[in-house]
Amino acid sequence: MSPAVVSGIVFACVFGGALLGMSLRPLLPERHATADSKDVVKLGMGLIATMAALVLGLLIASAKGSYDTQRAELTQMSTDIVLLDSVLARYGPEAHQARALIRRGVVSALDRIWPADSSRPLDPIAAQGEVVFEAIQALAPQSEAQRTLQTQALNIALGIARTRWLLFEQSGSSIPLPFLVVLVFWLTILFASFNLFAPRNATIIATMVVCSLSVAGALFLILELDRPFQGLIRIPSAPLRNALAHLDQ
C-alpha cells in the first residue's frame, strides 16, 4: 500500500474521530460535563498524547535511520566500484574484460534502481557482481605485483557484493505495522476528546482539518523515508553516476 493511500486512511480516521467527538457532545449528559470530569479526560488524554508522541518519534527515528544507512551504503559501494576499477587498471590490459563488466553492471544498476519508468518494479540487487568476481578470479597473474593487485581486487569485489546484499536485506519496511495501527488509534481517540467539550463551529472544524492533515502529512513523510529507492524522498543516484563517470579513466 502506497504512503499516499495510508496517509489518506490516517486522515480519514483522525478527522473522523474529531467528527465523532462533535457528534457525542450534544448527547453527553450535563453531569458528565462537570469540571472534575473534564480534568480526568484531560489527564487521560495527556497520557495518550505523551505515548503517541513517543511512538511517533520512534517511527521518525527508525525511518530516518534506515534511510541514512542505505544512503551511506550506496555511497560506500560507489566508492568501492571506482577503487576496484582503478586497481584493475593498474593490473594491466588483461583486466579489460572485468572493467567492461563493471561498467555494464553500474549502468544496469542505475537502470534498475532509478528507472525512467517509475512504474517498473525495483530490483536494486540484480547486477553483474558475481560475473565480475569470476572474471577477476580468472585472471592469470604473471608477476608478484599482479598477484597482489588481483587479491586486492577480489577483496574489494567481495566488499561490493556484501554491500549489495545489505541493501537487499534492508529493502523491507523498518516500521512495524502494529506501531502504526496503535498510533492511529491513539490519535483518533485524542481528536475525539478534543471536541468532546468544545463548541461546534467553523473555526473548530477548520482547526481539526488542518491538524488532521498535519498528522497525515507527518506519517506520509515517515513512510516515504521508509522507501528510500521509491517515492518522492528517494536516495539520489549521484554517487553511482559519479562512479560511472570515473570508470575507465
What key attributes describe this structure?
249 residues, mainly alpha
Reconstruct the topology from this structure.
Layout: H1 3-24, H2 35-91, H3 96-113, H4 129-137, H5 144-169, H6 177-194, H7 202-225, H8 238-246
- Quaternary structure state of the chains depicted: single chain
Count the beta strands. Answer: 0
**Distance between the first and last residues' Cα:** 44 Å
Largest sheet: none
> Helix-strand pattern, N to C?
HHHHHHHH
| Number of DSSP helical runs | 8
> What gross morphology would you assign?
rod-shaped
Q: Give helix % range.
A: over 70%
On the 0-100 scale, what is the average pLDDT? 84
Beta-strand residue fraction: under 5%
Question: Which stretches are low in confidence, meaning pLDDT under 50 for 5 or more residues running?
Answer: 118-122
How many separate domains?
A: 1
| Main structural class | mainly alpha
Provide a descriptive summary of the structure in words:
It is a single chain. The chain is 73% helix and 0% strand. With 249 residues, the chain is mostly helical. The protein has one domain. Residues 118-122 have low confidence and may be disordered.
Short description:
The protein has 249 residues and is an all-alpha fold. It is built from eight helices and no strands. The longest helix has 57 residues.
